[in-house]
Sequence to fold (145 residues):
Amino acid sequence: MALYSEKVMDHFTNPRNVGKLDDADGIGEVGNAKCGDIMKIYIKVEGDIISDVKFNTFGCGSAIASSSMATEMIKGKPISEALELTNKAVAEALDGLPAHKLHCSVLAEEAIRAAIKDYYDKRGIAYDKAQFPDPHEEEEHVEED
Ligand code: FES
Fold:
């Protein structure tokens, strides 16, 4: 079996929603200290809906495919739904990622949450801090061989 699914290859070679939003309502930037990859997600919010989303990912193919898929999954959706998006759901939507690449999809989940938190902060919207744990405190520990 190929290491990467067709969906991963498709979203890597033809990523959706690449770029930046100059008038973004929220921007989330996260990185993985181990591999040095960085992901930035921009969201535009209308009412309670994420009306537009773009990303810039300086990272591996799995991180780019995860960003592409994750942005597709939250576009046009309520913020509450975007907050529930897990890296597992992103990886499943991509028909799976190799185990040692699962942490790449974690970046997408974290970047979306960071963008929503930024939106709340900028608008002065109150939120439950427990919804936005510091990603570094729960950083995924990938076993080294
Ligand atoms: Fe860094 Fe994939 S190896 S995010």
Q: What stands out?
A: Residues 6-124 form a domain with the Sufe protein. Chain: A fold (CATH 3.90.1010.10). DSSP finds five helices and three strands in the chain.
